[in-house]
UniProtKB/TrEMBL annotation:
Regulator of autophagy that contributes to antagonize becn1-mediated cellular autophagy at the endoplasmic reticulum. Participates in the interaction of bcl2 with becn1 and is required for bcl2-mediated depression of endoplasmic reticulum Ca(2+) stores during autophagy. It is a single-pass membrane protein. One of its GO terms (cellular component) is mitochondrial outer membrane. The keyword Phosphoprotein does not apply. This is CDGSH iron-sulfur domain-containing protein 2. It comes from Notothenia coriiceps. Its cofactor is [2Fe-2S] cluster.
Length: 117
């Protein structure tokens, strides 16, 4: 094994490709050791609550599914919540207006219209 001389390390501008290739393992180990040394001081990644859509509705269930028969629709228009903030979920109570104002989102309700023949 050849020893890398200190004067070669400081003379980066005159290194040839073969010398750079010999330095790569050493530089890789130094980079890894540096990362492992500072890693405990880096900020921890937290689960972003902002990335969750449903914050409180039926959280005990693995999947929220609401089934409504079309025949049961009483009025001409029915609005269903898509922002997951409605206190009357699955029916929209216009909570999306506050949600959109706070977050800059553009979510709105699902509107089902009954055709009158």
């Amino acid at each position: 094994l050849q020893v890398i001389h200190l004067y070669k390390i400081y003379a980066f501008n005159v290194c040839v490709v073969s010398e750079w290739l010999r330095l790569l393992p050493l530089l890789g180990i130094l980079a890894l050791l540096g990362y492992l040394t500072i890693r405990p001081f880096l900020p921890k990644k937290k689960k972003q609550r902002d990335s969750l859509i449903n914050l409180k509705i039926q959280k005990e269930n693995p999947k929220v599914v609401n089934e409504i028969d079309i025949e049961d629709l009483n009025s001409a228009n029915v609005c269903y919540c898509r922002c997951w903030r409605s206190k009357t979920f699955p029916v929209c109570d216009k909570s999306h207006l506050k949600h959109n104002e706070l977050t800059g989102d553009n979510v709105g309700p699902l509107i089902l219209k009954k055709k009158i023949l």
